[in-house]
Amino acid sequence: MFDRRELKREAREINRSACVSAYLFSLIYLLISFVLNFCSAYVSDDIVVYLNLNFPEITVPSFLLHASYPTLLITFVSVLVWLLLSVLHGGYSLYSLGVRRGEQMPYTTLFDGFAFVGKLILLNLVMSIFIALWLMLFIIPGIIASYRYRFAVYNLCENPEIGVMEAIEMSKVQTAGFKGELFIMDLSFIGWGILTGFTAGILMIWLLPYMTQTLLGYFQQAKQIKQVGYFPPRESPADEQNF
Q1: Do 7 and 188 touch, CB atoms closer than 8 A?
Q2: Would you give the distance in Å from CA 119 to the centre of its chain?
Q3: Could you give the CA distance from residue 130 to residue 132 in angstroms, rounded to a whole number?
């Protein structure tokens, strides 16, 4: 149904033509995400545990060693980081959608998700609960559920006026019959993911916008096929003439 090679080629072209560099924008997004995750791991001691278990021969840096923090503080920091990452992901989605439309998206777009922060957080929370419930049944239903809600954030970012459940329902319709193709698309990036590991994650600066725009290509085509989703109003000939 989808021409994966064409969608990937289109994704590369879109990223290269972005007025605000997609790669620099991704670098900023990844750096902020790394700092937030680092803070959460530092407070919960996950970093020290990880190093001790996997690299026992390495001396843990002294600045990572600290007394255990109260459980309440660890929970607070973890929840706060999750909320901030949800909003930043919304901002990154807004940027990627705008670039695809040929708009000039400034770096501050990364924080535009705060304009509808409540809906973004609620959407991510509801999706996480649904996926977790399906995972309780078995791994496969959980994976299928994750693909079922794959376009929900994009639906909300395209039209923040809609409700959370409406964005989810739209995604369910848009992905119906296409989950297998989305899964194959993800598999096609495994090689790049492995290379990213060999570059200590640096390659992700290029890979993230590439994968995102490819997925958005699927999203836009699925909307057209299913005729479900937000379609920006077009100017009438009279409006264009007046302009």
Answers
A1: no
A2: 15
A3: 5
Contact 113, 94 (CB under 8 A): yes
User: How many C-beta atoms surround the C-beta of residue 215 within 10 A?
Assistant: 20
- CA distance linking residue 13 with residue 120, whole number of Å: 29
Instruction: Please report whether residue 173 resides in a domain.
Output: yes
The rounded distance, in Å, linking the Cα atoms of 223 and 185 is 17
pLDDT digits (tens, 9 = 90+) for 151-210: 999 999 999 999 999 999 999 999 999 999 999 999 999 999 999 989 988 999 999 999
The end-to-end CA distance of the chain, in Å, is: 39
- 174 in a domain, yes or no? yes
* Residues spanned by the domain of 55: 18-180
Q: Residue 34: inside a domain, yes or no?
A: yes
The answer to the question of residue 176 being in a domain is yes
Number of domains in the chain: 1
Rounded to whole angstroms, how far apart are CA atoms 112 and 88?
A: 8
